[in-house]
């Protein structure tokens, strides 16, 4: 089939479940965790992989996938290189948005907020727990910068592996965690005929206001 025909004809009718304002928990973090539990239970592929969108200092959005590694009472933590494209964006503009899609459950979640670095000791503890090869990879990769060849990267890995042969690998100062502190959540449940259920939470002072949205 030609690509454009395929794109026009692909249809998926969502019909598994429903969502109403009465079904959701008052706290959106608890709601997220209950949906995540269901995603894990349903063996959703990569349930903790989220798109994270950032915006450059020129107003150009970009997005990529990261793993959510911790959920605190304040937000969603992920780890990366602070000098990567996303890191450079965040230092110029801390607004960010996560988006998760769990096709097996016909669910999507959007989380908008402000991104901050986590404290050093949180990054240190997470880094110390990673496998040694990942720790060395964090040192070797100048994430998002051009590199001449794969060989160059492999040589850097080789050198670092020798260097840290018998020693613990310290966390690079340009590698660590960010936390997205949300002020908006949206929980989306696919429904037949594109009449999807959407329930959003908006932070108002210190409390969460829940609204249903048009599909
Ligand atoms: C499933 C999956 C999980 C990923 N997890 C991470 C992660 O936790 N941290 C990270 O820095 N990159 C992760 N990546 C790679 C990023 O998508 C991205 O390529 C990288 O962070 C560079 O992004 P940037 O150039 O926009 O900064 C992951 C990619 C995939 C597909």
From TrEMBL:
<comment type="pathway">
    <text>Cofactor metabolism; pyridoxal 5'-phosphate salvage; pyridoxal 5'-phosphate from pyridoxamine 5'-phosphate: step 1/1.</text>
</comment>
<dbReference type="InterPro" id="IPR019740">
    <property type="entry name" value="Pyridox_Oxase_CS"/>
</dbReference>
<dbReference type="Pfam" id="PF01243">
    <property type="entry name" value="PNPOx_N"/>
</dbReference>
<keyword id="KW-0664">Pyridoxine biosynthesis</keyword>
<dbReference type="InterPro" id="IPR012349">
    <property type="entry name" value="Split_barrel_FMN-bd"/>
</dbReference>
<feature type="binding site">
    <location>
        <position position="134"/>
    </location>
    <ligand>
        <name>substrate</name>
    </ligand>
</feature>
<feature type="binding site">
    <location>
        <position position="108"/>
    </location>
    <ligand>
        <name>FMN</name>
    </ligand>
</feature>
<keyword id="KW-0285">Flavoprotein</keyword>
<comment type="pathway">
    <text>Cofactor metabolism; pyridoxal 5'-phosphate salvage; pyridoxal 5'-phosphate from pyridoxine 5'-phosphate: step 1/1.</text>
</comment>
<protein>
    <recommendedName>
        <fullName>Pyridoxine/pyridoxamine 5'-phosphate oxidase</fullName>
        <ecNumber>1.4.3.5</ecNumber>
    </recommendedName>
</protein>
<keyword id="KW-0288">FMN</keyword>
<feature type="binding site">
    <location>
        <begin position="143"/>
        <end position="144"/>
    </location>
    <ligand>
        <name>FMN</name>
    </ligand>
</feature>
<comment type="subunit">
    <text>Homodimer.</text>
</comment>
<dbReference type="GO" id="GO:0004733">
    <property type="term" value="F:pyridoxamine phosphate oxidase activity"/>
</dbReference>
<feature type="domain" description="Pyridoxamine 5'-phosphate oxidase N-terminal">
    <location>
        <begin position="36"/>
        <end position="161"/>
    </location>
</feature>
<feature type="binding site">
    <location>
        <position position="86"/>
    </location>
    <ligand>
        <name>FMN</name>
    </ligand>
</feature>
<feature type="binding site">
    <location>
        <position position="85"/>
    </location>
    <ligand>
        <name>FMN</name>
    </ligand>
</feature>
<dbReference type="Pfam" id="PF10590">
    <property type="entry name" value="PNP_phzG_C"/>
</dbReference>
<feature type="binding site">
    <location>
        <position position="69"/>
    </location>
    <ligand>
        <name>substrate</name>
    </ligand>
</feature>
<feature type="binding site">
    <location>
        <position position="126"/>
    </location>
    <ligand>
        <name>substrate</name>
    </ligand>
</feature>
<dbReference type="GO" id="GO:0008615">
    <property type="term" value="P:pyridoxine biosynthetic process"/>
</dbReference>
<comment type="function">
    <text>Catalyzes the oxidation of either pyridoxine 5'-phosphate (PNP) or pyridoxamine 5'-phosphate (PMP) into pyridoxal 5'-phosphate (PLP).</text>
</comment>
<feature type="binding site">
    <location>
        <begin position="194"/>
        <end position="196"/>
    </location>
    <ligand>
        <name>substrate</name>
    </ligand>
</feature>
<feature type="binding site">
    <location>
        <begin position="79"/>
        <end position="80"/>
    </location>
    <ligand>
        <name>FMN</name>
    </ligand>
</feature>
<keyword id="KW-0560">Oxidoreductase</keyword>
<feature type="binding site">
    <location>
        <position position="130"/>
    </location>
    <ligand>
        <name>substrate</name>
    </ligand>
</feature>
<dbReference type="InterPro" id="IPR000659">
    <property type="entry name" value="Pyridox_Oxase"/>
</dbReference>
<dbReference type="GO" id="GO:0010181">
    <property type="term" value="F:FMN binding"/>
</dbReference>
<comment type="similarity">
    <text>Belongs to the pyridoxamine 5'-phosphate oxidase family.</text>
</comment>
<dbReference type="InterPro" id="IPR011576">
    <property type="entry name" value="Pyridox_Oxase_N"/>
</dbReference>
<feature type="binding site">
    <location>
        <position position="188"/>
    </location>
    <ligand>
        <name>FMN</name>
    </ligand>
</feature>
<feature type="binding site">
    <location>
        <position position="198"/>
    </location>
    <ligand>
        <name>FMN</name>
    </ligand>
</feature>
<feature type="domain" description="Pyridoxine 5'-phosphate oxidase dimerisation C-terminal">
    <location>
        <begin position="175"/>
        <end position="215"/>
    </location>
</feature>
<dbReference type="InterPro" id="IPR019576">
    <property type="entry name" value="Pyridoxamine_oxidase_dimer_C"/>
</dbReference>
